[in-house]
Design a protein that fits this description.
Chain B is mostly helical and about 230 residues long. Chain B is built from seven helices and no strands. The longest helix of chain B is centred in the last third of the chain and has 44 residues, at about 180-220. Chain C has one domain (about 40-245): Rossmann fold (3-Layer(aba) Sandwich). The chains are: A alpha/beta (about 400), B mainly alpha (about 230), C alpha/beta (about 280), D mainly alpha (about 220).
Chain lengths: ~400, ~230, ~280, ~220
């Protein structure tokens, strides 16, 4: 009882079936479906075992009389025979994927319409066989767009290595940082720089250390104390190196105070509590929070605000940005943090990535504009090319 | 060890294990909340428990659920009837290399293991982001339903397209934010602020929910004030 | 504080007490505010509801105790829905702390609906690897999870005979607290293997995932405790999430009040400080 | 050689996994599938490494009598107990291995459910208090942008709870807070996050490229 096993039981009581469990062709069968086509189906895990069948509905499908209940699909290894039942699909269906094919074996497919009691003539197609494919064509867009982007990134990286002047606009956040440090100098109070609680391999931490180097050079110049609390031992030693180097570069190695680069605690809230203690005791006039922050962002920014310090923050942790924006004087949003570090360091790999992303965004915007117009104009082939699954 | 068996026996929810457990849980909860008054030894005690149990728990379940079936049983199935996967020797060696980090003379070998997973994750993330978060998002923007949905739907959908473009331009660093670019960036920042506002509201909601969860535990499971 | 007392630097412990009270009272004396259902929750519910009995679905439990108050109600509501509809459930966890939390959710439900382990549902336990593990399941679930949470080889579990890879699963419900979670499932399963994915996430994560809802990469989204309460309402079994909604409402109102009042006090005192400060800037 | 071999491993694995994304042929997929299983095993080893580090840090703290070393003793002690319960075959009572449910009587699970669960979930519920305090003391309408942010936040905070629904239930549909909230989430919020997502995707892709090509080597650590 093939029909039953597909949950199609309404007509089953009246149907006349042969040994194979299929309805006999009796009087007025529905008109047959047309134009059966079968082709190797390529998917993301293609082992050559899938063949996709498509056909055009029987003219009676959906018509008032002789309504079609569904279609039987058969697969055979020799022409002219229906072979084994492959599946029964409901009315209105025009495609089916046979995922039980053996790669390389030629198959002949047939499809017939049924009204529940009788079968139409066959529409047939064959031979066709499943192939192990070498490329998932639907993913071409990913390959092409990633290829364009990588070409841009590598070109700009090469240009930067050769010393070409690549323009990157100055991030307003950097001005805010410098103003804050200047203000602390004016007031004769220290600057507090928190490089987040990320590990040393976190790209936000790395970007933060670049900016720390810039800040340290300014504080070295003005001989303003710079306090750097850290939550990771490795970040502390990296910060020590960065600050010491900056003081040496400014010709003030003696002004460098190693006691101001501190490891406080690995535990999130304990760290926040300890930094808050520094804010209340040593009263820095400028608090800079740049790097990877989690829930402690809120505790730091609140205490700093209460203590009346100028606060500048920057992070790519989206869920923490709202708190920084509302409690700090200036906030570097997401990519601005990386851009600021590329701008300051002029490191080719960072500049190449930044410039490559920039121009890829322009390509993207252009593609989206064309796509929207095409989509409204009904040019689906163009738009569907970007549909990759 | 019969006392231990007895500890766990009884109707669900009423065993000695559960009754005592609830008390232990409640006291530890209060230890953490004492931080609200100020940092203190009770909080520090609770925190150090948390770190120790968490690490050991992870290690144990890592052994039972990952390492044992994937590595040890694959290599030495014993009488479990599962096939021997001899080639799992290679990741086994890499895993040992990884742990050589603890021995300064051999720690350079741990880089081989690190290089293996860094390379794999770099590629898996690359294709994942490229497909799902880049190309698919371009496709979704292209197919924004601008037509056939009435005036309100048109305005809202158009505003979404404008927002995507403006935010992309806000994070464009190769040109000063002046002129047309300045206008686009201004629009971009408006969208970002609304989104951060939504994020803010949701974050508040999440934190409050956690407190409600703990309060439910204290009032219901421990004190039985509510049901 | 150093500035001397004013209403701005009110001891924060007073605020803490107010919050405590605002949570406790509605829990003790519930008001039963009505719960409206938002479109992303409705569409997820409809997708699950439309599945015929016997269909195999997957539950990805990827959270730890710190987000349990928000996410455990989602797990329970989804499992209840699935068991009620006689769907069969395969559970996988990418977070180490999830399997016992899922077990805690399962125990009473299994009893209530009389479900049999290994036939109606299976808990495959924890597997490290995040995105790589999801990718592995796209090719072979049994190869990626060779044993279940209790150490039984999957070959001995009847339900797993019918599940070879993600394409044998009609729908995946991912309950996610972070990474690895919803984003990795979208990247590695939805885009790559055309899996139908619905997700419940913490409130902190939810706004990030609206692009996936809009693009259809997610068929639905439950955001935070409210999302869980909405699903509970649809399933017709109000539980912890629904009970928490009154307290949630009151605390939100209180926090909105704090923001508004705090700003008023701030700007008024800043103006008067500016007047007093006119001659001598500190 | 100590640098070249790791760079070569990263390159080969990276390229092979990229090829796996585009090529469905079994010549690639069969070995790629097994490689993923290897990746899972090696990742597990890296977690062991992290836990080992934790033990080392605390042992050092105790050995040097650093501030708070007493707490390190507590950490290591409960860790040892929990490990014994979880790994030592004689320590369990449950029918299945050492893990399992409380009903099955495993002390390992008891410690998880009644110690780890309350500790971890309470830790983050502290934030509800901190957020309330910051709401009063630090969230300011300091600029047009911050004001827009806070207004959106207030709408969402009220619109996502039953109270907002109750307050505006008599207004026309498009003036009700839940509708406004869902509209904010589904349009401007969605648009901004899509823009952020696409930018972040480019960042991850560029980083992946640099790692696979060996331009980015910071993960290999010091040794100049």
């Amino acid at each position: 009882m093939v029909a039953l096993s597909f949950g199609w039981a309404s007509a089953q009581d009246e149907s006349v079936t042969d040994e194979a469990g299929l309805p006999h062709p009796v009087a007025f069968p529905p008109a047959p479906p047309r134009d059966l086509a079968a082709a190797d189906f390529v998917d993301n895990n293609d082992a050559g075992d899938k063949i996709e069948l498509t056909w055009v509905l029987s003219p009676d499908d959906g018509a008032e009389e002789a309504n079609v209940a569904g279609y039987y699909l058969w697969r055979s290894e020799s022409p002219g025979a229906r072979g084994d039942t492959l599946a029964f699909v409901g009315a209105g269906t025009t495609d089916f994927v046979d995922d039980t094919a053996v790669p390389g074996v030629p198959y002949y497919y047939s499809v017939t319409a049924t009204d529940g009691t009788s079968l139409s003539d066959d529409a047939t197609f064959g031979p066709v066989s499943g192939r192990r494919n070498w490329f998932t064509v639907s993913r071409l867009a990913v390959l092409v767009l990633a290829g364009i982007f990588f070409a841009l990134v590598l070109t700009f990286t090469r240009l930067a290595e050769r010393g070409a002047k690549l323009f990157v606009r100055r991030i307003p956040g950097l001005n805010a940082i410098e103003e804050a440090v200047g203000r602390a100098t004016e007031m004769g109070r220290p600057v507090l720089y928190v490089p987040g609680i990320g590990e040393i391999d976190n790209i936000m931490t790395i970007a933060s250390l670049t900016i720390l180097s810039h800040v340290a050079r300014i504080t070295a110049r003005y001989e303003t104390p710079l306090i750097v609390p850290t939550a990771r031992a490795v970040v502390m030693s990296a910060a020590e190196e960065v600050v010491k180097e900056a003081y040496a570069a400014e010709g003030k190695p003696d002004a460098y105070n190693p006691d101001n680069i501190r490891y406080l605690s690995d535990a999130q809230f304990a760290f926040a509590g300890a930094v808050n203690g520094i804010m209340l005791r040593e009263r820095p006039a400028a608090n800079l929070y740049l790097g990877a922050f989690w829930a402690e962002s809120l505790l730091l920014a609140e205490t700093g605000f209460e203590a009346g310090a100028i606060q500048v923050a920057g992070t790519a942790m989206v869920s923490q940005l709202p708190f920084f924006v509302t409690a700090c004087d200036y906030t570097l949003l997401g990519e601005e943090l990386y851009a600021a570090s590329a701008y300051l360091s002029r490191e080719p790999k960072l500049l190449g990535g930044l410039k490559g992303s920039d121009w890829m965004k322009i390509v993207t915007i252009a593609l989206m504009a064309i796509g929207i117009i095409m989509s409204i104009a009904g040019a689906d082939a163009f738009v569907e090319w970007f549909h990759t699954n | 060890m019969s006392w231990l068996q007895e500890f766990f026996t009884g109707a669900p929810g009423t065993t000695t294990a559960v009754v005592w457990g609830t008390w232990v849980g409640a006291l530890l909860t209060l230890c953490i909340y004492s931080f609200l008054y100020k940092d203190n030894p009770f909080y520090k005690f609770a925190e150090s428990l948390f770190v120790g149990i968490g690490a050991a728990y992870w290690l144990a379940i890592l052994y039972h659920n990952t390492l044992k079936p994937k590595l040890f049983v694959a290599l030495f199935p014993g009488d479990s009837g599962e096939p021997v996967l001899w080639y799992r020797v290679f990741p086994g060696i890499l895993a040992i290399f990884m742990l050589l980090r603890f021995f300064p003379k051999l720690s350079w070998l741990s880089r081989w293991a690190l290089a293996f997973i860094v390379g794999m994750y770099a590629a898996v993330n690359l294709t994942g982001f490229a497909q799902a978060d880049f190309v698919e998002q371009i496709y979704a923007t292209m197919t924004t339903p601008l037509t056939g949905g009435g005036v309100l739907s048109f305005i809202l959908n158009l505003s979404a397209v404008v927002g995507v473009v403006a935010v992309l331009l806000y994070f464009f660093f190769s040109k000063e934010h002046k002129g047309a670019m300045g206008v686009a960036a201004k629009i971009g920042i408006l969208y970002l602020m609304v989104a951060f506002g939504a994020s803010f509201g949701y974050t508040v909601m999440g934190r409050v929910s956690l407190l409600i969860g703990r309060m439910t535990f204290l009032l219901r499971d421990w004190l039985h004030v509510i049901d | 504080m150093a500035r001397g007392f004013n209403i701005r630097s009110i001891d924060r412990r007073i605020i803490f007490v107010l919050i405590f009270v605002a949570v406790a009272i509605p829990l003790i004396k519930p008001m039963g505010l009505p719960i409206g259902v938002s479109p992303p929750v409705q569409s997820l519910y409809d997708a699950v509801d439309a599945l015929p009995p016997g269909t195999i679905v997957m539950l990805g439990g990827d959270y730890s105790p710190d987000s349990m108050p928000e996410l455990q109600p989602m797990t329970i509501a989804f499992l209840r829905h699935a068991f009620k509809k006689d769907l069969r459930v395969v559970i996988t966890c990418l977070w180490p702390a999830s399997p016992p939390l899922i077990e805690a959710a399962l125990t009473p439900l299994v009893e209530e609906f009389g479900k049999e382990y290994g036939v109606d549902y299976v808990n495959l336990g924890y597997m490290t690897g995040g995105p790589v593990t999801i990718l592995g399941m796209g090719n072979s679930i049994t190869g990626t999870f060779p044993r279940d949470y209790y150490g039984t080889p999957v070959g001995e579990i009847p339900l797993m005979d019918e599940v070879s890879n993600l394409s044998d699963v009609a729908l995946v419900m991912e309950v996610s607290a972070g990474t690895p979670g919803t984003r990795e499932w979208v990247q590695q399963a939805v885009s790559r293997f055309d899996v139908r994915l619905g997700s419940g996430t913490t409130a902190v994560g939810a706004p990030n995932f609206y692009p996936y809802v809009s693009s259809g990469q997610l068929i639905g989204l439950l955001g935070g405790l409210k999302g869980a309460a909405e699903y509970e309402t649809l399933v017709g079994a109000p539980a912890d999430a629904t009970k928490g909604m009154d307290a949630q409402s009151i605390v939100h109102a209180l926090i909105v009040f704090f923001i508004l009042f705090g700003n008023v006090v701030y700007f008024v005192s800043k103006r008067s400080a500016a007047v007093a400060d006119g001659r001598s800037r500190s | 050689m100590r640098r070249e071999i790791p760079l070569a491993i990263t390159f080969l694995i990276g390229v092979f996994m990229l090829v796996d994304f585009f090529v469905p042929h079994t010549a690639v997929t069969t070995s790629a599938d097994e490689l993923k299983q290897w990746g899972i095993i090696v990742i597990a080893a890296s977690i062991l490494l992290g836990i080992g580090n934790l033990v080392r840090v605390h042992s050092k703290k105790i050995a040097r009598r650093n501030e708070g070393w007493g707490y390190s003793i507590i950490t290591l002690t409960v860790m040892a107990v929990m490990l014994w319960l979880g790994l030592w075959p004689g320590a369990h009572l449950g029918p299945n291995e050492m893990i399992g449910t409380v009903e099955q009587g495993t002390p390992f699970n008891w410690m998880f459910l009644f110690m780890q669960v309350p500790l971890q979930s309470t830790m983050f519920s502290l934030l509800a208090f901190f957020i309330a305090s910051a709401a009063y003391r630090a969230f300011r309408l300091r600029s047009a942008e911050a004001s827009l942010l806070l207004i959106a936040a207030i709408i969402v905070m009220l619109g996502r709870v039953p109270l907002g629904q109750l307050l505006t239930r008599n207004l026309p549909e498009h003036a009700q807070l839940p509708w406004i909230t869902e509209t904010i989430m589904a349009y401007p919020n969605m648009a901004a996050f899509r823009g952020i997502l696409m930018g972040a995707a480019l960042g991850v892709m560029a980083m992946g490229l640099r790692i696979i090509l060996g331009i980015e080597r910071s993960y290999l650590g010091g040794e100049k």
